Amino acid sequence: MDKLAIISDIHGNIPALESVLADIKARGITRIICLGDIAGKGPDSDIAVDMIKENCEIVVKGNWDYFMTECDDNKTILWHRKKLGQDRLDYLRSLPMYAEFFMSGRLVRLCHAAPDDVFHRVQFAADYEEKNTLFKDPKGGNNRADVIGYGDIHEAYMDSFEGKTIFNAGSVGNPLEIIQASYAVIEGEYGKKENLALSISLVRVPYDIGKAIKLAVKSKMPGLESYIKELKTAEYRGKL
């Protein structure tokens, strides 16, 4: 059987990314797909982009990756853009919105937030109808996915819909549920349209949060206090 690791929302947190990549390697998984938000929030967007380019077979665009290339009137974004440099910005701009393939007879479609919109946020607590919209064909046809995987909300979960499956890979670098990095593993027959066994699992990986905080402090990045609080508590800075 083939194994795919699905990672998302790195947000420039290198200690978290290193720990997740080490765990993936220890499991013997060699194919990695990234669901975006490589850059922003954390201090090392440039290193994160380089590591994702080196290690990931497929990468799709996240909302923060979009901000990096399209927003030029925000001080926080401009700080990260300066670190990224033009070549990395061009790479982020070139990323596709989604990836899809057959695995064990299921059409798997992977995206950051929704296949046709990096800003279409579907929370864990969303109702059936809202989650069900993610299965639609982004090209407007009838090619509905059997499995949808996404990132964006920094909260890993899995759910089923009348034989279809939806999962969120959570966040590598900015988890907002527990203070451990998370990613997903899909196991099955890659590229096969024959209906065979398929499994999806969610993995939690502890990492050196203290080191991540030291790197953030050293960088003098914007939004430092909010970022540190999120790493320490897994509580979203915008939560009332």
TrEMBL record:
It comes from the Bacteria. Pfam families: Metallophos_2 (PF12850). Residues 3-187 form the Calcineurin-like phosphoesterase domain. Belongs to the metallophosphoesterase superfamily. YfcE family. This is Metallophosphoesterase family protein. It comes from Clostridium neuense. The lineage of its organism: Bacteria, Bacillati, Bacillota, Clostridia, Eubacteriales.
